[in-house]
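Feature request, filed as a ticket because there's no other form

It would be nice if the structure record came with a short human-readable summary line next to the tokens. Right now we just get the raw output. Example of a typical job, pasted below so the devs can see what we mean:
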Amino acid sequence: MDSLTWEGDLPQLRSPILVCSFRGWNDAAGAASTALDAIADAFDSETIAQVDPEDYFDFQATRPTIALTEGEVRRIDWPQNNLIAARVPAAERDLVLLDGTEPNLRWRTFSETISTAADALGVEMVITLGALIAEVSHTLPVPITGLASDEKLVEELDLQRSSYEGPTGIVGVVHDCCRKVGMTSASLWAAVPHYIAAVPNPKAALALLRRFEGVTGIAVEATELEEEATSYEEQINRAIAANPEIEELVDRIEAEQEDQLENPEDLPSADSIARDFQQFLRQQGNQ
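Raw output as currently delivered:
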């Protein structure tokens, strides 16, 4: 773990769960990273380790940024992957949060670094948060797909066993590395409307957060995010009402989605959603 720098001694945590979110392709509308930020803000959190970006990023593809401090001092902000300890006194377990950006290079080494650090911290379970672009309506409840590779976890948490085959992101590699060292894992995905995917989506982040609570039994205070989600939906409604073409599109999607809710056998599977998303990514890459 030469690329991992610990801030101090390993913290003593109670049967922690590792919760990961990566900015990039698996964070549509910033929903996953926003949900993770809400978790960190809700508890007594501290950064315990940082991954050196030098070995894992192509800085021409994922560029560092220049920022001003107090309007004068210029600093360079590099893409980060930080491990954060979050103590949850009201629950039986604590959390380790991986707040990161999907690396460009050496995914196996990166994931092995994360899994080794998680093992050293006593992590027993890994949950990744993601968000994908789909043909869903912003007016209806956010669809959340929960996947797990362990049969016992599938049954206990009412998730699905994934049979998806195809391209993956860094979350797939992290899951595989953690599985190899004996950790169970689950993945939660929120579907965000494709017609407003460029806008941060606090409603999807809140839905992802609530599903996380159901899986872990850990309650997260998120009043600010709830207010943002309400304001977001009101603003989107006003913007769409001013554009008849988009309004017609939304009405069609809403009707189709409601029909699927009335006929659950017609709902798309988690794997079909993943395949649709991968097709979207390939189309974006060819532009």
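Something like this underneath would help us a lot:
The helical segments are 31-42, 107-120, 151-157, 170-180, 202-216, 223-241, 244-262, 270-285.
The first strand starts at residue 4 and ends at 6.
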